[in-house]
């Protein structure tokens, strides 16, 4: 199968065809840096970082750009509140954003261009639009004339006459059309600004992204991403001004990720999902989340939903996600213990594995199937949820295999090699998305408790093996008194929890 992507521009899944064979350019709208980033700001970077890693794995040469909006009314207002300069505030918030991304394993972004470093490129586009009479000045502001773009509204499927609302520009001085938006905003001498042919001012938000994306990826590039809330007016306006200026298509594929919603329980006991917003007071800064949870878990959580779906955020959802992820880590731990080999090493190739009986063959088949289906899921509009389900299936197959072959007690070298190589297949697949790169500390307990519990679990497994049920039951009951529950499964005990 080839890569297929859901394109907001056409409202359907399409076969992906890059502008230049073998190469892919991706631009993603980044944050406006005036407040510490919340979890919603991490969704896009984590998704597109994982997406790039997958595309690179598939043999593409990929350039990923995420911009920083470091000049904006919001930053100006917040900096005045804090009594610092706009630059100072933007710098501080950008540094904290980068630190969060680093922790979340977002390390494949090629450039993080800042709007204030691209004023000349912005002015150049506005000049081009002026020459075509698609832009006009009003008292030091410059507006884009939406009627000069024949297919204005094609991304959000809005007709021009519906567009009197939704514009980010509150100024309505003497615009030609209600939907016209600002490319340049006049600034007073005491305000932050740059010289332009129309007087001192600062760029509008939309034009910043047009200038930066085309600067790094060319006038026509492959993929433009961002949150679904940016479709209108931001992305619609990016298309209008870019295509009117160049006369060429702007981005060929528009990928929009779902938003993060807060899942909360109302006083009535009913669950509800609401948008994260400052006014609702339900914004969780990433910094705080990283203190509560491991970065691996947060990355795993964000990737366990297909990117177009909303992510419902709650402590319960994170815990459920942790349970799933720890099941995988426990299997890896188990194989590591049995084989004393590094399960995070590279699988030497499933085709090299030899099966001596049906049980072996069934595991080898499961591993091959998991690999194929994992890639297939990602090729199908980057379905990370489907891909992770394949990893789960493979882990279950390995657990069954360890149990059937009694690898915990029997010295079966060939069986151990098979368990090790298939477990390495699990980490190899995960690593395509930047997951399962190394051991994790279980945040729910300290390391010693984990090790001791593992020892007890093994002793109990041995007791059951020896049909010494009195001893194995005594261990379970004793743990029960300590409020510890063993997770007994048909394929063997693989975990424990404290109630
Ligand atoms: Zn943007």
Unreliable stretches (pLDDT < 50, length at least 5) are 165-171
What share of residues is helical?
A: 40-55%
Beta-strand content estimate = 5-15%
Shape: elongated
Spatial order of the strands forming the largest sheet: 4-3-9-10
CATH topology of the largest domain: Rossmann fold
**Named CATH architecture of the largest domain:** 3-Layer(aba) Sandwich
Could you tell me which ligands this complex binds, including any ions or cofactors? Answer: zinc ion
Number of strands: 15
The CATH C-level name of the largest domain is Alpha Beta
Topology, please?
Layout: E1 4-7, E2 12-15, E3 23-28, H1 39-57, E4 61-66, H2 73-82, H3 86-103, H4 119-131, E5 135-138, E6 141-144, E7 181-186, E8 201-203, H5 205-217, E9 221-227, H6 231-246, E10 251-257, E11 260-265, E12 271-275, H7 286-292, H8 295-303, E13 311-313, H9 315-339, H10 358-379, H11 384-404, H12 413-432, H13 447-465, H14 469-481, E14 484-487, E15 495-498
Parallel strand pairs: 3-4, 3-9, 9-10, 11-13
Antiparallel strand pairs: 1-2, 5-6, 6-7, 7-8, 11-12, 14-15
Helix pairs in contact: 2-3, 4-5, 4-6, 5-6, 8-9, 9-11, 9-12, 10-11, 10-12, 11-12, 13-14
The protein binds zinc ion (ZN).
Q: What does this protein structure show overall?
A:
- The chain is an alpha/beta fold and 499 residues long.
- It has 3 domains: 4-257, Rossmann fold (3-Layer(aba) Sandwich); 323-432, Orthogonal Bundle (Isoleucyl-tRNA Synthetase, Domain 1); 447-498, no CATH class.
- Helices cover 45% and strands 15% of the residues.
- The chain is elongated and about 90 Å long.
- Zinc ion is lined by residues 29, 209, 234.
- Zinc ion binds at residues 29, 209, 234.
């Amino acid at each position: 199968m080839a890569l297929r992507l859901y394109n907001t521009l056409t409202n359907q899944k399409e076969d992906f065809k890059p502008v230049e064979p073998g190469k892919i350019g991706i631009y993603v709208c980044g944050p406006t840096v005036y407040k510490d980033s919340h979890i919603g700001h991490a969704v896009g970077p984590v998704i597109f970082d994982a997406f790039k890693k997958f595309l690179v794995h598939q043999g593409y040469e990929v350039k990923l750009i995420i911009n920083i909006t470091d000049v904006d009314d919001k930053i100006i207002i917040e900096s005045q509140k804090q009594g610092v300069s706009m630059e100072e505030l933007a710098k501080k918030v950008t540094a904290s954003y980068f630190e969060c991304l680093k922790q979340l394993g977002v390390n494949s972004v090629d450039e993080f261009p800042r709007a204030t470093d691209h004023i000349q490129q912005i002015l150049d586009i506005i000049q081009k639009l002026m020459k075509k009479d698609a832009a006009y000045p009003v008292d030091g502001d410059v507006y884009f004339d939406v009627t000069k773009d024949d297919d204005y509204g094609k991304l959000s499927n809005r007709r021009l006459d519906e567009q009197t609302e939704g514009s980010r520009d509150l100024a309505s001085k003497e615009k030609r059309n209600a939907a016209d938006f600002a490319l340049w905003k006049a600034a007073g001498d005491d305000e932050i600004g740059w010289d332009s042919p129309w007087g001192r001012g600062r760029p509008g938000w939309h034009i910043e992204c047009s200038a930066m994306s085309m600067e790094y990826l060319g006038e026509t590039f492959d993929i433009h991403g961002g949150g679904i809330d940016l479709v209108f007016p931001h992305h619609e306006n990016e298309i209008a001004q870019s295509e009117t200026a160049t006369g060429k298509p702007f981005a060929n594929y528009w990928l929009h990720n779902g938003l993060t919603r807060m899942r909360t329980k109302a006083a009535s006991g009913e669950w509800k999902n609401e948008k994260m917003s400052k006014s609702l007071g339900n914004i969780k800064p990433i910094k705080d989340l990283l203190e509560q949870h491991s970065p691996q878990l947060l990355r795993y959580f964000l990737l366990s939903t297909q990117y177009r779906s909303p992510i419902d955020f709650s402590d319960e959802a994170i815990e459920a996600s942790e349970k799933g992820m720890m099941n995988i880590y426990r299997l890896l731990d188990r194989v590591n213990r049995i084989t004393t080999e590094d399960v995070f090493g590279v699988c030497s190739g499933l085709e090299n594995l030899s099966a001596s009986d049906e049980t072996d063959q069934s595991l080898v088949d499961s591993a091959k199937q998991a690999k194929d289906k994992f890639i297939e899921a990602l090729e199908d509009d980057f379905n990370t949820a489907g891909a992770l389900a394949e990893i789960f299936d493979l882990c279950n197959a390995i657990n069954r295999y360890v149990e059937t072959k009694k690898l915990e007690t029997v010295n079966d070298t060939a069986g151990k090699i098979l368990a090790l190589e298939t477990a390495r297949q699990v980490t190899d697949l995960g690593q395509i998305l930047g997951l399962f790169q190394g051991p994790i500390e279980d945040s729910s307990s300290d390391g010693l408790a984990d090790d001791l519990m593992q020892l007890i679990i093994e002793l109990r497994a041995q007791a059951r093996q020896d049909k010494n049920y009195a001893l194995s039951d005594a261990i379970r009951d004793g743990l029960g008194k300590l409020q510890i529950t063993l997770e007994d499964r048909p394929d063997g005990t693989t975990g424990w929890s404290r109630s």
